[in-house]
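Q: How would the structure tokens look for this protein?
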Amino acid sequence: MPVTISESEREGLLTIDLRALVENYRWLRAHLQGGGECSAVVKADAYGLGVARVAPALFAAGCRTFFVATQPEGEALRNLLPAEAIIYVLTGVRPGCEASCARAGLIPVLVTTAQIQHWCDQTLGMGGDESLAAPAALKVDSGMTRLGMGAKEFAGLIQQPALLRRANLQLILTHLACADEAGHAQNSRQLTAFSEMVDRLRQVCPGVRASLANSAGICLGEAFHFDLVRPGSALYGVNPTPTQPNPMRPVVNLRLPVLQLRQVIEDSAVGYGATQTAVAGSWLAVVRGGYADGLLRAQSGRGRGVAIAGTDRIPVPMLGRVSMDTTVFDVSALNGRQREQLGLIEVLGPTFTVDTMGAAAGTIGYEILTSLGHRYYRQYV
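A: Here is the predicted structure in token form.
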């Protein structure tokens, strides 16, 4: 007899645990030994989990500074939070949008002298004083060679104190490249380079705050904390210390409904490309969920899940390639009673986390989170 599942489980049930999210934020904040501020990175719709629910929960937990990636993200977030929330835009501001960015109460992260000059030209007088531009931030490259001002350009900028003071800089920041490898020499090199840049900037702008640490950077120790840390992935359950047990609580749980339970009577190739074979007598469960829903095709034949059969939870392997809308699991480990009670397979949860799924797909938990589809029913705890 078919197992009855709820309406919310029909296309897959994605549960986001806001209590776990808040506990993760508090754990990270508690590790700031020097008394710095813990902000939150909520870009990409809070890593795919829904900024409209995530950001207010973090604000209620005491978070006052938030980072987004784009101006539209910032404008949407501004409408969700009280006016006292501080919102930084990590990719800065596009030419022609300076005034609207400032009016929205957003702080762009600028990366070139030309951007700083243009910001001053377009927003002068919007910083609470006729001589000040609207608040801005400066991102420098301390060794990642991605978005940020290089050492040579920074040295030239320091020689323009009038411009720096007019720019109304609130924050200088950079990004660690190897923070999840605690012993990597790049961490100390970046710490040294950034510390020197901070010292030089503060000779001109003594009140500017500094930020170096991302999620993993927080776990590198107090020297990396400065005035503000910027956790992102760890808030959502990704392990900030990959070589050690995960101190973060899992935030997401994803259960997929079983569409068909079948037994093969002879050795049978499974899925596109016939890459794997189910041996005669195997029991297979076909679930509603595929690469269009964030189950990355790269985990084909390597992914795992947990069969939910009544009160029993039985780990089961994925079999064959992930399709667009469906995935197959080998549930031969279930006994007859468990097969009768099988209705769902959990692919994300306490047993198999976003990090586990990421490893199976040859990627990281970040990509798993931001790939989660919108066909699932989303439930917030």
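The chain has two domains: 7-13+250-380, 18-236.

The chain is about 30% helix and 25% strand.

Upvote if useful.
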